[in-house]
């Protein structure tokens, strides 16, 4: 890709992020627990004030009942680094026990800068690598894919509005995907292991990475070659995890168990708030939490998730391919979002990433629709955070950037046939009609959500309607991904025939 347009896209994306960062954040001025902004600030407070062996352990100095650290160690290291930065300029913002609920304007500015820096240092290079690898040989298509990855409104809103650091975990996973596509399996294993160690939600991608990498190992010509390939990747993963977890593995008293208990808090419930997955949507008719115990629900969710992801895994085990891997990533992440246990509305970011890598250069119209639905599915959360205006602005920026990139690509590249499309959704009128109908439903629900008070006996009516409408779209998209996977699997089989 040429340097000038890449710089222009990066600067425009940074401007959108900066504009969103001027808005409110999760839990602003809402004691006693505030919100995700306070959680991130509190983790900085804990990590700069206590040794790693105490980060995940309840004590008089670390009350786990108040936003206890519940992300893996790499996230703790990130909190420590960001905390040191904040501490240098405003020590009161991370003072142990005395900084609870600290919300000065300057501390907000400092914390916002840490997310912008993380985005620039991790997500931007990963997006560049993914654009080069998955954009094909065309500079225009690569630029188009870069735009799709950097202008994702849902990701920008959650990280730079709501306030999180998903750009790190998603960036590492994106870099891992790019590495495997060019045959760097060791680098892929390291980057994905780091992604898992930043946020446990990286498990949404684990079936796809496992299936593809194991499938690659099975392609070795000899049994010894197969065993050596598997062993090499196993050693790489073990060493990466060992280095990240070293402070807790060395600490007395099985401190690593404290980390595991915090990272996988199964007692927190089936889902959080209103999320556009199967369990939340169907709970209006089936009271899952009344019918089944927590242990049974956990088993049911695990079984349903693995069953939904298993066909995609099987196809990659048998016939691994770079495009098939992206489809498997999308299928696996969507299966986890729809059926797994303890899903957040923000988890939509996980399937959104591989979908953007798939359709960013192939089908811009479909990509814009996916981004709108992903953002729409979080409407109750965004409304609570007072990010409605920011949501409209980021969606508009995404659509405009994608359209501009598409026009620029059309001028510089020869027309190409849509890869991997199906008669169902491949630039036909039916796609446009369905998207128009979808948008109309979103607009009607949003207008009612904002202007019409719900009935007193149904105070969360609009929240339920929004997640139900979103669930129908995400489920349909899940089915479409599987249609594309079957096509790719069939094409990969034909390519192997003499």
UniProtKB/TrEMBL annotation:
It is a multi-pass membrane protein. Its EC number is 2.4.1.-. Residues 1-21 form the signal peptide. Pathway: Protein modification; protein glycosylation. GO terms for cellular component: endoplasmic reticulum membrane. Keywords: Endoplasmic reticulum, Glycosyltransferase, Membrane, Signal, Transferase, Transmembrane, Transmembrane helix. GO terms for molecular function: dolichyl pyrophosphate Man9GlcNAc2 alpha-1,3-glucosyltransferase activity. The chain crosses the membrane at residues 115-136, 143-163, 201-218, 230-248, 297-318, 325-344, 434-452, 464-486. It comes from the Eukaryota. It is found in: Endoplasmic reticulum membrane. Belongs to the ALG6/ALG8 glucosyltransferase family. PANTHER family: DOLICHYL GLYCOSYLTRANSFERASE, DOLICHYL PYROPHOSPHATE MAN9GLCNAC2 ALPHA-1,3-GLUCOSYLTRANSFERASE. This is Alpha-1,3-glucosyltransferase. It comes from Chlorella vulgaris (Green alga). The lineage of its organism: Eukaryota, Viridiplantae, Chlorophyta, core chlorophytes, Trebouxiophyceae.
């Amino acid at each position: 890709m040429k340097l000038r347009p890449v710089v222009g896209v990066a600067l425009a994306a940074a401007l959108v992020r900066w504009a969103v960062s001027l808005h409110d954040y999760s839990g602003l001025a809402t004691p006693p627990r505030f919100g995700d902004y306070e959680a991130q600030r509190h983790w900085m407070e804990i990590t700069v004030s206590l040794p790693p062996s105490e980060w995940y352990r309840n004590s008089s100095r670390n009350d786990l009942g108040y936003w206890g650290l519940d992300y893996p160690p790499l996230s703790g290291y990130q909190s420590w680094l960001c905390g040191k930065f904040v501490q240098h300029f405003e020590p009161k913002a991370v003072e142990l026990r005395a900084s609870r609920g600290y919300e000065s304007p300057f501390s907000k500015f400092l914390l916002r800068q840490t997310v912008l820096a993380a985005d620039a240092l991790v997500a931007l290079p990963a997006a560049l690598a993914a654009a080069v690898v998955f954009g094909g040989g065309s500079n225009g298509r690569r630029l188009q894919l870069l735009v799709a990855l950097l202008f994702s409104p849902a990701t920008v809103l959650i990280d730079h509005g709501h306030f999180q650091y998903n750009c790190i975990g998603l960036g590492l996973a994106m870099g891992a995907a790019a590495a495997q596509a060019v045959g760097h399996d060791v680098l892929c294993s390291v980057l994905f292991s780091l992604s898992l160690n930043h946020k446990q939600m990286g498990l949404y991608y684990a079936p796809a990475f496992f299936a593809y990498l194991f499938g690659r190992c099975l392609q070795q010509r000899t049994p010894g070659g197969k065993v050596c390939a598997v062993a090499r990747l196993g050693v790489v993963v073990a060493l990466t995890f060992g280095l990240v977890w070293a402070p807790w593995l060395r600490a007395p008293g099985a401190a690593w168990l404290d980390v595991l208990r915090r990272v996988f808090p199964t007692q927190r419930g089936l889902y959080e708030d209103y999320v556009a997955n199967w369990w939340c949507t169907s709970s209006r008719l089936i009271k899952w939490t009344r019918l089944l115990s927590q242990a049974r629900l956990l088993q049911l969710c695990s079984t349903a998730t693995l069953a939904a992801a298993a066909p995609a895994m099987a196809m990659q085990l048998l016939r691994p391919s770079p495009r098939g891997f992206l489809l498997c990533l999308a299928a696996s992440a969507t299966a986890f979002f729809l059926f797994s246990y303890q899903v957040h509305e923000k988890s939509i970011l996980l399937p959104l990433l591989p979908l953007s890598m798939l359709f960013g250069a192939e089908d811009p119209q479909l990509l814009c629709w996916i981004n709108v639905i992903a953002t729409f599915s979080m409407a109750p959360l965004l409304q609570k955070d007072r990010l409605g205006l920011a949501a409209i602005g980021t969606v508009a920026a995404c659509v405009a950037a994608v359209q501009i990139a598409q026009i620029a690509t059309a001028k510089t590249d020869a027309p190409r046939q849509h890869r991997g499309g199906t008669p169902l959704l491949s630039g036909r009128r039916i796609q446009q009609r369905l998207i128009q109908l979808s948008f109309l439903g979103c607009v009607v629900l949003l207008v009612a959500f904002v202007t019409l008070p719900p009935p007193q006996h149904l105070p969360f009516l609009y929240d339920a309607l929004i997640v139900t409408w979103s669930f129908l779209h995400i489920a349909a998209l899940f089915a479409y991904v599987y249609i594309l996977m079957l096509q790719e699997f069939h094409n990969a089989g034909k390519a192997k025939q003499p």
